[in-house]
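call fold(seq) -> tokens
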Amino acid sequence: MERQGAEIVAVDLSPDIDKTSWDLLILPEDDAAQIKAAQSRGIQRLTNGFWYVHEQFDSKAKLVYATAYRVPTEIGRFDVVTLCSVLEHLRDPIGALENALNFTDNAIIITNIVPHFISEDLQKLPLAYFMPDRAQRSLHGGWTWWHFFPEVYVRYLDLKGFKIISNTTRSYKHVAGPQKVFTIVAERAVPPNHA
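ret:
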């Protein structure tokens, strides 16, 4: 996006776990300090990757440390807000989406993995699947909380005054094998109420 002329402000978690904690689900048998340390290391790797690419491409993108629920209003408003594979990792993805809508004057783009374990005929329904179980925790200590089908977001965006421009699904290469990913592009049909 930056190479096409966009000015970018990225929002991500801080490696300092006390400033911007992931949505943790601490199980009774968990060592909370160990989980937080693993989470902090995982976030640090992501942050290192951002700064590596930033340097390699001579990027001017800014990085703001925040959670999806509490983005500082001082960063301003934007023509387009993107949510790329983040909503599934949040306890309250609709709350995060609601917050993101407060920052866009024009459009929003949502992209996420299509849940592969649900038959295709059901994937067109507005379903959500609660993911956490003891076998699903990732190495960084985080969880995939939800798999939402695109229709959930399509209906929500419609209720919030957005017109769906496109809702597509594509397959992409991933180290774990091909992944189907959906992308929703929506534009404001009703001006935002800043009251």
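The radius of gyration is 17 Å.
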